[in-house]
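Reviewers asked in the last cycle whether our approach scales beyond single polypeptides. To address this, we selected a multi-component target totalling 396 residues and predicted its structure end to end. The input consisted of the following lines:
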Amino acid sequence: MVAAMVTTGTRERLVTTAQRLFASQGVGPTSPRQVLEASGVGQGSLYHHFPTKHDLAVAAVGATVEQALTAARRDLEGDGSGDPGGGVEALDRVVAYVTRPREALAGCKVGRLTSDQAVMDDDGLRDVVTAYFVRLLAAVTATLREAGLPADAARDRAHAAVAVVQGGYVLARATGDEDAMRAAVRGFVALLAPEARR
Amino acid sequence: MVAAMVTTGTRERLVTTAQRLFASQGVGPTSPRQVLEASGVGQGSLYHHFPTKHDLAVAAVGATVEQALTAARRDLEGDGSGDPGGGVEALDRVVAYVTRPREALAGCKVGRLTSDQAVMDDDGLRDVVTAYFVRLLAAVTATLREAGLPADAARDRAHAAVAVVQGGYVLARATGDEDAMRAAVRGFVALLAPEARR
DNA sequence: GTCTATACAATGATAGAC
DNA sequence: GTCTATCATTGTATAGAC
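The resulting structure, written as structure tokens, was:
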């Protein structure tokens, strides 16, 4: 209970450094050597805390996924009152989620991993990515149901909403223009909530 | 004029093999050695035709992009008559484009490259990817204008349409479920063309 | 727990014979 | 144009001292 706060240790530094490198280069192309050099720890330290690259990747990708999911839920959850009008209306929360400013040119920290062969070939890592999208889709679907959509429509539109964001990242990176994501989101929102209060 | 047909040579075999490997593993993770072994040619042959991996990648990615663009245009172009009713209506052609059956679990052969650091760090390769999406977006935008949308709305909805397809690939790969792409597309089409003739 | 040194395979390419 | 042999570098660890 006393030592619990002092955890800005080597292990944590390795994880945050790995998160940063994974986000910018992907998991496959990032070597353990790069991580230890960028974090300033020695060879032995990394392999003490994380015997293999897989172990480091699970820790770093897991942390990234938790952070991303937390951010999405902040957008999507109402005030819990259940009262229409008690918080922001459900459809507006979905609009808030898709329109949230994003670093479009960097790509989605999680979505990009679906093209990372080192991730998809590793059962443990792939499961972390799968769980992220399953939970994200469930949250968006629930919010759309709250907005009054029937189950099938809610499910399909939730998939479309998340896909527009993911595809927006792809378009922004491909064209080198972060407005490409904004255009995609605008096009979708105009259809989903034509009267959206902006 | 005589020799022009006999071109099922070593060079072409290398390109098609590279296309296949790039599509399944990405460009970065595919080694020249894998390409020459899979195509059955010798070390020297590959490096004779393509002095560097970059040269091989430009040829293979360029071919893939041309094929993808040709397929998209087949969906999007009318019969050229300009007559409403002379061919399939413009909005239906956009619906045809987004609903075309795709190997969702494999990911988009071009879109995946935006997460491939080896591609994005190479000016020549990145330009090929950029050109693909610029031309694809232009084609979808033009078709939506033909459908009667004003310029801004056509541009935004075209971005949304292409993003839904790209994001559909991401969702399908992430969840391991090819229906995820179909759900995203269905959700989008229900909004874009509620009365779509299916 | 952390450090330096080392091992061993794969990558991307070159050399030079045929 | 194609082949075999070779090479320098990087990736992923392991060994063993402190």
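Chain A has one domain: 3-192. We regard this as preliminary and will revisit it once experimental data from Aim 1 are available.
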